[in-house]
Amino acid sequence: MKKAIIVILLLGVIAAVAGWGFSAPTRLSESQAATLDEGDPAKGELVFWAGGCASCHAAKGAKGEDLLKLGGGLRLETPFGTFVAPNISSDRTDGIGAWSLADLANAMTHGTSPDGRNYYPAFPYTSYARMSDKDIGDLYAFLKTVPAVEGKAADHELGFPFNIRRGIGLWKWMFLDPAPVIAAPANGTEIDQALWARGRYLVEGPGHCGECHTARDFAGGLILSDWLGGAAAPTGEGRIPNITPVEGGFGSWSAADIAYYLESGFTPEYDSVGGEMVHVQENMARLPAIDRDAIAAYLKAIPPVPPPGS
Amino acid sequence: MPTGMCAVLPVERGVPGASKEGEEEMHYFRKFVVAGLAAGLGFAAIPAQASDDPVAVRQSLMASMGAAAGLAGGMMKGEIAYSPAAGKSAIATARAVSLSFGDYFPAGSDQGNTGAAPSIWENADGFAAELAKFTDATAKATEASGKDGPADVEAFKAAMGPIFGTCKSCHETYRKKN
Lengths: 310, 178
Hints:
The complex is a heterodimer.
Chain A: H1 2-22, H2 30-34, H3 41-51, H4 53-57, E1 75-78, E2 81-84, H5 101-110, H6 125-128, H7 133-143, E3 157-158, H8 165-175, H9 193-204, H10 210-213, E4 231-232, E5 239-240, H11 255-264, H12 277-284, H13 289-300
Antiparallel strand pairs in A: 1-2, 2-3, 4-5
Helix pairs in contact in A: 3-7, 5-7, 9-13, 11-12, 11-13
Chain B: H1 2-18, H2 24-41, H3 45-50, H4 54-77, H5 84-100, H6 119-122, H7 124-145, H8 153-174
Helix pairs in contact in B: 1-2, 4-5, 4-8, 5-7, 5-8, 7-8
């Protein structure tokens, strides 16, 4: 009996130590950080739109030039609490103007802040972790060019236990994986491999499409076996659609239909884009046509996720 | 006031079966009341039937708009050969939808199989402003369309484009996600 208690206590201590260890914020290694290069702001602007940064970090309803005023403040009301998008403008005290390139890379690919805290995954670093160093370098150069906006955004409003940032480290340990979700194009499709790979990069990486279009488990991790199979809306009412090539659903869209939708905002039935997807579509419309074709090629050649109950 | 008429009409219809002795006076009284109400409401009685189900009406209006947009988009993309008559038809449909659509969102019609977001009723002024953008765009397009429709596809794009722009701007906030 005494032995059993000692074993249980020991296991508890091990679990606590391991939990503390696994929850530690991770960073790029010194050598990785050393290879980063500040890039080209013009290319970085395309990365900025591909990544949808303005959709959360600009003011709600911002259009045109206002999309570059990245003062934050947008509230994301989720089952875990309310997240408030921070100021990522070039302001040196309230924004991220004082960040190094390694700081940005650590934030985007490791979900770790310059002062070593874990970011909440409302900031989709689980997707951004798949971004190339080059794109992050270009983005860094572009973010220096956007206007400085004064004023910090409000704090997140989260209840216990979600208000413990350290705990997010465990979540990251479970769910942060920069490996591609879909290893290769679905069988039986004759496609341009390079185009498909570019589409995968855009969708799984900067585009962070899976963050809304994939269902999550009880812990808030994406259920990768149902990749892009649709999900309950993370905020507000409605459902985010299944965008896998499933029969009787999105499978009826041709690659040209998908590319046209991303460019114009119209479905093949000439229904228009709505909700948060309006921002996403308008961002995608700013990319070169070949990138929209790449996204379409990828979406046409991923495993179909049958709708629930079929 | 279409819904008001709905409540009244069945009374008139029910009268012949009920017109027995002793009820004659009531019968005439009812007829009188009904006639008065009908006169007061004027031709509001016509949409009264359709608006029994405002959700179905507004969905059929949007379906007409979608069909017109499909024709318009097909011509704009060059997939369908452009003709001024077809261009005029698409614009006329958009005009009719823009003028009538807003009448089919009575309080309580946010339930059931509808894509209408609660924000339509929570922010009625904002929704009205989006509808106004829609009707403004169709008014200008109708004017440009003229008697024979826009002469060529470029003229059609110029007229129809702004109407297309208003779809998204309203759906962003006032339609449930999809």
